[in-house]
Amino acid sequence: MVPRQEFLNPTVLDPGSRKTKTGYFWVLARDDRAWNGSVPPGVAFTFAPGRGGIHAERILQGFSGSLQVDGYAGYNRLIAPDRIGPDIRLAYCWAHARRKLVEITRNGSAPVAEDGVKRIGELYRIEAELRGLDPQARLA
């Protein structure tokens, strides 16, 4: 299972202050259908007053496994060496990395960025070939 986390920024009432404040809906999604997973897809929404790693840690309390994330540094708290709790592995999203590399290549000649875009394209090709295969075949 690889939950994917996203943020939505609602404005909510701030009880007792007669004002509103911005908070964050943390959205965790699971969809293993692309690799014939046995669990049904699902989405969970939870609210937190911020986007800090402390909220990710609270929301994912008890979770173990891989978590697909963007490059946001707040997730580093989940893999800190001194963290107590189940093992979490961060799986960074290629789309976020690729987007940055594409931006760099659009602003001029950048051979390293161009090479990165090509390599990510090759990974996408490999992933497309593996999609739908069982876990043992994908691992091989």
What does it look like?
- The chain is α+β, with helices and mostly antiparallel strands and 140 residues long.
- The protein folds into two domains: 1-92, no CATH class; 94-140.
- It is 32% helix and 26% strand.
- A hairpin with a 4-residue loop joins strand 2 (11-14) and strand 3 (19-22).
- Helix 2 packs antiparallel against helix 3.
- It is globular.
- The two termini are 19 Å apart.
- Pfam families: DDE_Tnp_IS66.
- Residues 12-139 form the Transposase IS66 central domain.
- This is Transposase IS66 central domain-containing protein.
Sheet with most strands: 3 strands, antiparallel
Shape: globular
* CA distance, first residue to last residue: 19 Å
How many domains in all? 2
What is the string of helix and strand elements? EEEEEHEEHHH
Query: How large, in whole angstroms, is the Cα Rg?
Result: 18 Å
Number of strands: 7
Count of helices? 4
- Beta-strand share of residues: 25-35%
Query: Strand sequence of the main sheet, in spatial order?
Result: 1-4-5
Q: Please give the share of residues in helix.
A: 25-40%
Helix and strand composition category = alpha+beta
Look at the structure and give the mean pLDDT: 85
List low-confidence stretches.
Answer: none
Provide keyphrases for this structure.
Transposase_IS66_central, Transposase IS66 central domain-containing protein, 2 domains, 26% strand, globular, alpha+beta, single chain, 140 residues, Transposase-related
Task: Provide the fold topology.
Layout: E1 4-8, E2 11-14, E3 19-22, E4 24-30, E5 42-48, H1 53-59, E6 65-69, E7 88-92, H2 94-106, H3 111-130, H4 135-139
Parallel strand pairs: 6-7
Antiparallel strand pairs: 1-4, 2-3, 4-5
Helix pairs in contact: 2-3
